[in-house]
Design brief:
With about 475 residues, this protein is of the alpha+beta class. It folds into three domains: about 130 residues, no CATH class; about 90 residues, no CATH class; about 120 residues, no CATH class. It has 21 helices and twelve strands. β9 and β10 form a beta hairpin. The longest helix is centred in the C-terminal third of the chain and has 22 residues. The protein is globular. The N and C termini lie far apart (about 60 Å).
Length: about 475
């Protein structure tokens, strides 16, 4: 972009006249920039308003925490703010020079904003008026602050006013915000199940969005509207629709309905199959860093199925295994993003643990032993490939250090180690297993990580084989594998 050595300051009146002319003539972006001299005009405008101040994240957070500084930061209520907003909209001509200006930006809204500046400066914040696009951007951005418990005035009143007004007009963003805030209540809106259902009914009818069906399913399942009487038929329809689109919550609620015979014939096998599939998916996501997802809810349900003996005899130890994982996951989730209903989820998990824990014998040793390399096999089932460093010790044992592997560094998965007999559950980046006395030891690499794709037991030779594809990376005979358990 060319820079003028010296230009006269651009006034708001200059900007208004230009936008009026653009609306009247509707040139392409290229015509505006080249034939109209728009390139030079935008240079002069940028020079007038100056470059936007760059703030560190800490400085930005501090400014947004100050109600007096926040609103001018988020809304164009000063002359500089309006000019900067209009400049950004006009700069769209650089990105799509062949498009007509009427397709690049809403010029009527820009004029509306310029004309309304004097009114806004003379009015209190709760009476400020802006084009719908500006209000929508504000409520969408500020929604995160309100959900986090922010309740400072006048920002809170401005937020609630914009949301209510735009929801009445059918704005999707406003309906979504009002619907979710009314679902249980927030600092901005009280709990109002009827209002929440009305919002999501409108949204689902207009968009068919599966997330809205999921929310309507919850409202029906728990009888939020209708004097607390569940509507299982409606819940099943909504959950089925959303589950088919990959919404995890709807899938495990369908499993609940199959398990309890609610709105559908009782089918514990179907419930078990759904939860098993969800468990594998959410475990992988959790170990990959999705700590605010639905793993806690799914692990809780896996535990219930084993506790109740849905397909076999009740198995308290297996149930405890999954309940420990559910507890570990819900504590992470609540620390990072406490969600609506998490109080109840954690309470249900703790109650479940209290039921089965007394039935699970606890080890007093500091070492967990298994006949097979269980952590490696579980990791391989999830990740397909694991780095393993083998080293034969002077005692004759083999030490195996398991490490994460992924071609994309951002997709690394930790090991979720769960030992019910020790009451232990923790995420670990590396895991060390040590064998008992090992015989017939073969190591293709010593003290260097090798990629392992499978670990199988060769019954004919009574030896464990650790393979990369079809090639043997290590093999030996041993009576078992052990891991030291930390508190």
């Amino acid at each position: 972009m060319r820079k003028l050595k010296k230009t006269a300051p651009v006034t708001l009146q200059d900007l208004q006249k230009l936008v009026e002319k653009l609306k009247d003539k509707n040139p392409t972006g290229k015509e505006f920039l080249v034939e109209w001299g728009g390139d030079l005009f935008l240079d002069a405008l940028e020079e007038t308003i100056g470059e936007e101040e760059e703030l560190t994240e800490a400085e930005q957070a501090k400014r947004l925490a100050d109600p007096e500084a926040m609103l001018p930061e988020l809304l164009p209520v000063t002359e500089e703010g309006v000019m900067r907003f209009v400049a950004e909209e006009l700069s769209a001509a650089y990105e799509d020079p062949d498009e007509l200006f009427s397709d690049l930006t809403d010029l009527s809204e820009l004029l509306y904003m310029i004309a309304g500046l004097s009114y806004n400066r003379e009015s209190s914040p709760e009476n400020w008026d802006f084009p719908d696009s500006v209000k929508e951007d504000f409520i969408d951005y500020f929604d995160g602050f309100i959900s986090g418990g922010y309740a400072e005035e006048p920002a809170l009143t401005l937020f609630t006013t914009f949301v209510r007004d735009m929801a009445e007009e059918g704005n999707e963003t406003a309906l979504r915000i009002l619907g979710y805030h009314s679902y249980g209540g927030s600092t901005a809106f009280p709990c109002d199940w009827e209002q929440s259902k009305e919002c999501f009914d409108r949204l689902f009818e207009e968009t068919g969005e599966p997330l809205y069906a999921n929310t309507l399913g919850y409202i029906a399942y728990y009888g939020r509207c209708g004097d607390g009487v569940p509507d299982y038929d409606a819940a099943f329809r909504y959950f089925s629709y959303a589950s088919a689109s990959g919404i995890i919550e709807s899938s495990y609620k369908l499993a609940d309905m199959y398990a309890g015979g609610k709105g559908i014939w009782r089918n514990e096998e179907a419930a078990f199959r759904i939860i098993q599939e969800l468990y594998a998916e959410t475990l992988r996501r959790f170990c990959g860093g999705e700590l605010t997802g639905k793993f806690a809810d799914v692990a809780l349900r896996m535990g219930r199925l084993y506790e109740n003996g849905s397909l076999d005899e009740p198995n308290p130890q297996a149930a405890y295994y999954y309940y420990l994982q559910a507890r570990y996951a819900i504590r992470f989730r609540r620390k990072l993003a406490n969600q609506y209903g998490d109080d109840a989820v954690e309470k249900n998990i703790e109650n479940a643990i209290a039921r089965v824990e007394p039935e699970v014998p606890q080890e007093s040793r500091k070492t967990c032993r298994r006949d097979y390399p269980w952590i490696l096999q579980m990791a391989l089932a999830m990740d397909k490939v694991v780095f393993v460093t083998f080293k034969q010790l002077k005692s004759g044992s083999v030490k195996m250090v398991l490490d994460r592997y992924e071609e994309n560094e951002n997709d690394l998965h930790d090991f979720l180690v769960t030992l019910p007999e020790f009451g232990f559950c923790s995420m670990m980046e590396t895991v060390t297993l040590t064998t008992g006395a090992a015989k017939n030891v073969y190591l293709s690499e010593t003290e260097e990580p090798v990629l392992i794709t499978s670990a199988v037991y060769d019954a004919d030779n009574e030896a464990w084989l650790f393979l990369h594809g079809d090639e043997i990376a290590a093999s030996f005979r041993t009576a078992g594998f052990s891991m030291k358990v930390s508190k």
